[in-house]
Write a structure and sequence with these properties.
about 300 residues; mainly alpha
């Protein structure tokens, strides 16, 4: 019975891994990506003033991961744009979300139940891209573990990693929003996921690629759908990270920092009395006396 269940699960995972992502899942991926672009402050105004800049930003949101991965592997960064079907589909989604009369398309796809479906479908594409990135890098660099991890990571979260470039296209410069400094959940999950796929690809993780794709996709779908439905930004990795990171990387000593800050602040707050005026010489005193006498005589 257990063997039959395992066989059925393996068949399900194999069928799921072989599921084509174009055009259905890619459409959902483009819809969610362009929705996030429209949520950015000033994005709607930019689409009216400069439609071409808005289109470029939308293409970065849709294909930024492919651009970064191609750059890492020494390939042409515009290679993916030879896929006319995907570019036309992404362009159609961008136009409908920004310019559909009465915002009908935007209202439909941003309706929460519909949006949750699209978010779940986007995670299917994300995990498939991570696996494909690791596999591609493994084919080029058979023993390059870090190259595999870097390629899979940017394939899964390249859009977020290129956020500063996308902001420049919109005329915004916010270096403090660097994704590497402040990783969001998808970026962290893509990093952890690419480690798993690298271990699996190099035969250090005893699991088939189809099973890993299936289980990691289910994990991503559950997390992202829950976070989107509850409007939560808390990372599911936070409890584990808060326990592990201080052990291996130490923690910031808040007491020492505040002590230094208090000392620094106190040194600025202490008011020093102004220095006494220099003593006048005898000649200056006599000159002042003569002036006062002359003034009284007048």
């Amino acid at each position: 019975m257990e063997l039959a269940g395992a066989l059925q699960l393996g068949e399900l995972a194999a069928a799921f891994a072989a599921l084509p992502i174009f055009p259905l899942f890619d459409t959902a991926y483009f819809i969610v990506s362009v929705l996030y672009l429209k949520y950015e402050p000033g994005a709607v105004e930019m689409s009216r003033k400069s439609p071409f800049a808005s289109w470029l930003c939308a293409m970065l949101h849709c294909f930024g991961s492919y651009i970064l991965a191609d750059l890492l592997l020494g390939e042409s960064p515009i290679d993916y744009f030879s896929n006319n079907s995907s570019v036309i589909l992404a362009t159609a989604v961008w136009y409908l979300i920004f310019f559909c009369p009465m915002n009908l398309f935007y209202k439909c796809v941003s309706f929460l139940p519909m949006k949750l479906i699209f978010v779940a479908m986007k995670e299917v594409v994300r995990v498939r891209k991570i696996a494909a990135g690791v596999h591609h890098a493994h084919h080029r660099y058979h023993h390059g573990w870090f190259i595999m991890m870097a390629t899979g990571w940017v394939k899964g979260s390249g859009v977020a990693l290129m956020s500063n470039l996308e902001q420049l296209l919109r005329g915004v410069w916010k270096p403090e929003t660097n994704e590497i400094l402040h990783m969001s959940f998808p970026t962290k999950a893509s990093l952890y996921g690419t480690v798993l796929f690298t271990l699996q690809q190099t035969r250090w993780l005893p699991i088939s690629e189809a099973n890993l794709i299936f289980f990691f996709t289910m994990f991503m779908i559950v997390c992202k759908v829950f976070m989107t439905a509850t409007h939560s930004h808390a990372s599911p990795f936070a409890p584990v990270e808060s326990f592990i990171c201080p052990v291996f990387f130490g923690s910031v000593s808040s007491g020492h920092t505040s002590h230094r800050h208090d000392q620094h602040g106190a040194s600025h707050e202490v008011s020093h009395p102004p220095p006494p005026p220099p003593a006048k010489s005898k000649e200056e005193l006599n000159e002042g006396t003569r002036k006062r006498k002359a003034k009284k005589a007048e």
